[in-house]
Amino acid sequence: MLGAITLLLLFQLAGEAVALYFALPIPGPVIGMALLFAALALRDGPSDELRNTAQNLLQHLSLLFVPAGVGVMLHMQRMADEWLPILVAVVASTFAAIAVTALLLQLMTRRTP
């Protein structure tokens, strides 16, 4: 398990390094995840250790939302003062994500024979 976590963290570090070196607007962990995906695609999938470690991390994923919840509770007054811009941003970004996903799906289905 320690080896698999080390591998995941190394890919995240590599993604951070690529993002900083090339001054990319993409977060380093996203680049690291793409690099990990490419490496796993070349190796025909993850090892059993990596698969089990990822499953264990996903089972406890809800714990990673605790700091965000605490942050919301800590800044509740600010959220009450600025609820309208927050609501507009959440709704607009949700619709933008749905629209981009739909457009990409259309583009990809046209390319597939």
Low-confidence sequence ranges: none
Question: Terminal Cα separation, in Å?
Answer: 41 Å
Average pLDDT, to the nearest integer? 93
Overall helicity: over 70%
List the total number of helices: 6
Question: Gyration radius, to the nearest Å?
Answer: 19 Å
Question: How many structural units, i.e. domains?
Answer: 2
> What letter string, H or E per element, gives the SSE order?
HHHHHH
Which labels suit this protein?
mainly alpha; 113 residues; 2 domains
Description of the structure:
With 113 residues, the chain is mostly helical. It folds into two domains: 1-59; 69-113. The protein contains six helices and no strands. Helix 1 crosses helix 2 (28-42) and helix 1 (2-21) crosses helix 3. It is extended. The N and C termini lie far apart (41 Å). The model has no long low-confidence stretch (mean pLDDT 93).
Q: Could you give a short description of this structure?
A:
This protein is mostly helical and 113 residues long. Helix content is 81%, strand content 0%.
Task: Describe how the helices and strands are arranged.
Layout (H helix, E strand, L loop, with lengths): L1 H20 L6 H15 L5 H12 L6 H9 L1 H6 L1 H29 L2
